[in-house]
Hints:
Helix content of chain A: 10-25%
CATH superfamily of chain B: MetI-like
Number of strands of chain B: 2
Bound molecules: adenosine-5'-diphosphate, magnesium ion
Oligomer: heterodimer
Helix content of chain B: over 70%
Largest sheet of chain A: 6 strands, mixed
Order of helices and strands of chain A: EEEHEEEHHHEHEHEEHHEEEEEEEEEE
Shape of chain A: elongated
Order of helices and strands of chain B: HEEHHHHHHHHHHH
CATH architecture of chain B: Orthogonal Bundle
Distance between the termini of chain B: 23 Å
Largest sheet of chain B: 2 strands, antiparallel
Structural class of chain B: mainly alpha
Number of domains of chain B: 1
Strand order of the largest sheet of chain A: 6-7-8-3-9-10
Number of helices of chain A: 8
Amino acid sequence: MASVTLESVRKVYAGNVEAVKGVSLDIADGSFCVLVGPSGCGKSTLLRMIAGLETITAGKIRIGDRIVNDIEPAERDIAMVFQNYALYPHMNVYDNMAYGLRNRGTPKPEIDKRVREAARILAIEPFLDRKPRQLSGGQRQRVAMGRAIVRKPQVFLFDEPLSNLDAKLRVQMRVEIKRLQRALGVTSVYVTHDQVEAMTLSDKLVVMNHGVIEQIGTPSDVYRRPQTRFVATFIGSPPMNIMEGIVEGPNLVSVGGSLLPVADMRADLKADTRIHVGIRPEDVRVVEDGGTAFRIDVDFIEELGATQLFHGKIAGDEFVLQAPTGLIAASARQLALTVDATNVHLFDRETGQRLGQVDP
Amino acid sequence: MQKRAVFGSRIVPYALLAPQLAITLVFFYWPASQAVWQSFHLEDAFGLSTEFVGFENYVHLFSQPEYYRAMWTTLVFSTAVTVLSLSVALYLAVMADKQLRAAATYKTLLMWPYAVAPAVAGVLWLFMFQPSLGLVARGLRLWGLDWNPLLNGTHAMTLVVLAATWKQISYNFLFFLAGLQAIPKSLIEASAIDGAGPTRRFWTIIFPLLSPTTFFLIVVNVVYVFFDTFGIIDAVTGGGPAKATETLVYKVYSDGRLGGDLGGSAAQSVILMFIVIALTAIQFRYIERKVTY
Ligand SMILES: Nc1ncnc2c1ncn2[C@@H]1O[C@H](COP(=O)(O)OP(=O)(O)O)[C@@H](O)[C@H]1O
Ligand SMILES: [Mg+2]
């Protein structure tokens, strides 16, 4: 196994498209790192540079202690699972999995052993003689996984491997990938635009936007202490509410005339500074109309089954509240809300950076 | 579910089909049936009398050594042209595929030969290889090769093969290029990660994935060489020297038109017709089955 290290990696495509703008990242040996971000943010490009499928414009990529910038994909000891699986359509499942081993001159009995072992782990033994087109989406996905694991590589690379599956299968395969990675202990880099997938799979979550890293951290880190407004609204569903606010004093802001205490607030913020205040839909509680409560006018309610979303407005800003179904009367027109000081996030209006204490 | 168009009237579909049917009848079935009829008759040289002779024309045909020779010539000719034009086209297509996105001009340039009429292509090559004046022929002579397609049968065959190949390359190229571009990039990338070098990648991934295209082109090229190269042969060698380049199709023409043996020529046409039908049948069978991977 091996760690993966990126040092100020850049990618400029022909036509001066800068897809990756100086990314540095340490991925520990055996860990599961997920790159998440909206479509076009450069995550596939980054992954493909690690794979060796794209040249590296600037910076260094290390796998283990080797700098791999000028090393061919085949020599990097990685395996990749593609979004469309990229199974060889003219080969059966067995040959698809054996192909990489044969190219490397692995002895036949060893190939057979490894392919059958992988097929057993992935429960695709009955399909070894089938062509890819005779398989369902989920089965193809497994074959693609199988092709990666038979090689026993140093690193697994995944580029949105579940996005062609239906929702139910996606959840199921997500769990399987996680389990498999745990069992094999192979360093994995996984690209997705789906924040739920990202949260559930990762040991280390990397949020990207416009070719730069917005935040690196554990999923709960990123969720609980988003370092930028982009991360705050990208991670979590429904997304964090962002409202206009004003600094009233140390650890105190106001939103729409209501005062909100804030636990994590930079000490040097001057009173009357305009800021963005972020509150997650699930972090607010309904209270009897009281002192520090702020109010929203309810426009409509979305039913999610276990929970309900109350859509409303607070001083002109959209606000969504998530509450267990039945907790709040569906007839409510106006709600008085309160939020813990620890659940209020402040962001710079211009840069979007978190305005929190540097060391929490 | 099958897709079916629904027409209000029973006549409309027939009316829509009629022009196509009429053309097929007039330009294919009518001459074809004429040929079949003629092949069972013997006509005198002036076309004044005809006489029913049964299979005599056919029997006569198969007793001629020239006919077997024309068959052999056709076989050599079609194999050479097909193999040569397919491999050159595939090579060019692979090269072009690498460069492609930038260069639609390549495609246009490589397409030009196909737009040239067979006889013109033939004349072009004839000029280049004309023993005393031709540019290439002079070059060859400088290299010590006594080039003379007008006397040497092998040289003549080489020349028609080259001319026919040249003309067919562009057609094959376009199909190969389309086939190559239809191969998902991720397959090539997957095989690169799987440790296959460029050559191995070509033979284990790209070539097998092109097999439907290749097969289709083999049939098309064989049909082309069998029937469409008449113009080239006529312009370049006229079937000579000493019938060294007389293919089956050319023999139909030379026996019927030049030799005046209409019955024998018709019998040859009928045999050729069966060959086309067989080739087409093979193609349909295969395209439906084996070739879909
Ligand atoms: N081969 C390429 N040539 C030029 N631009 C590209 C190429 N591949 C990707 N890009 C551009 O680079 C940016 C990042 O793309 P990509 O890494 O595929 O994003 P993601 O995987 O996050 O959706 C996009 O703006 C995309 O248009
Ligand atoms: Mg992508």
